[in-house]
Amino acid sequence: MQVTQTSSQGLKQEFKVVLPAADLAAKLGAQLAEMQAKAQIKGFRPGKAPIAHLKKLYGKSIMGDVLQESVNEANRKIVEEHELRIAVEPKLDFPGGQEELERALEAEGDLAFTVTFETLPKFEIGSFDDISIERPVAEVADADIDAALKNLADRAQEFEPRAEGAKAEKGDKLTIDFTGKLDGVAFEGGTGGDIDLVLGSNTFIPGFEEQLEGAGVGEQRLVKVKFPEDYSAQHLAGKDAEFDVTVKAVAAPKSLEIGDELATKYGFENFDAMKEAVKGNLEADFHKVSRDKLKRALLDALDSRYSFELPETLVEQEFNNIWGQHEAESRRANQPVAEEGKTEDETRAEFRKIAERRVRLGLVLAEIGQNAGVKVEDKDLTEALVERVRMFPGQEKQVWDFYRNNEQALAQLRAPIYEERVVDHISKLIKITDKTVTKEELFKEEEA
């Protein structure tokens, strides 16, 4: 085997490899000899079939395996001798084309190929003594607990039909059919049948529910509304529409005490136990948001801290992934892929910056985690897999088997767990100051 480095540009290293025909023929001969001892070929005694006959029958197939193993062996040797850290699978090129490949398969000629490795960048991690981050924290107030209990009560609300001839009031549940029209023409997605609507829930377009107050069973009403300017379906945003609505049923809410009766409906022993559980869930939610904002601030600090060349292929893969998601979401919302006030090229450029940030941070976190010996325990991976399986009721076994038999799928589950472990590690090395904020400030969404 002859190996010559032909190019070294940044993270890309290119080598020319020549596999001599004599070496390939020797490997083929060794495998044919091993086959001869075991082969049972019609017309020959066991183990006595001539090598030449076996070569005629199986030589090309065996040589295919020999070539594959020889190429892999050459790549492994290059990686080890040059101490390369590979970012992606190497790219192979056979300049001799199909003709040279066929000659190699017949063990009649050398096989030459070039292999390009895209490597991981080298950079110093350093210490984190100079990183200082404020972590927003908020206390769960009694009002938050009361609001959560009210929400649970609303979800458990039962209704009973109103008396014949009664008119719908705010808080009642109506069962309706409707057909929406723009300029007198029904539009896609604007028709529904046997739809339940609680008046005052604000689940429909602003102004829709109010116009049904006072309606009775069997009554038809023309509801006129204007879609919000920021409505998700762009072809409807800001448009005036009319809905032909038929009221099929009117039901009034039954009284429900926010106390032991409600607790029993949710499987709690008493109201105190339910209230304590609600408080615990809210505290967990507050803690998660607080941690997410700490993590975001930490990632911002790391992103501004490190600057190094990125593997082009990894950036391209990440860009294609997030851009594909953006395109799919835009199609579902019937919106252009270009963000408001920007061209598609400008939008693409911004998404590429996001891809570069993700790749950079991924490499930084991986390096930090490797240096610190961060690992994902089997139990953590199993818990994540159980959570994923629960998302597919009725298909639990199929989903479980898919992940257990698919290393790449398991790696996708492991990656976010590993990232969290590395963030935990770094958090112990930086200065974190808690800043008390209001609930509204804590849950305020920051610009992405």
Automatic annotation (TrEMBL):
Lineage: Bacteria, Pseudomonadati, Pseudomonadota, Alphaproteobacteria, Hyphomicrobiales
EC number: 5.2.1.8
Enzyme class: isomerase
Subcellular location: Cytoplasm
Keyword Transmembrane helix: no
Cross-referenced Pfam families: FKBP_C, Trigger_C, Trigger_N
Classification via PANTHER family: TRIGGER FACTOR CHAPERONE AND PEPTIDYL-PROLYL CIS/TRANS ISOMERASE, TRIGGER FACTOR-LIKE PROTEIN TIG, CHLOROPLASTIC
Parts forming coiled coils: none
Keywords: Cell cycle, Cell division, Chaperone, Cytoplasm, Isomerase, Rotamase
Cell division in keyword set: yes
Region (Disordered): 327-348
Basic and acidic residues compositional bias, start-end: 339-348
Reactions listed under catalytic activity: [protein]-peptidylproline (omega=180) = [protein]-peptidylproline (omega=0)
Organism listed in the record: Methylocystis iwaonis
Official protein name in the record: Trigger factor
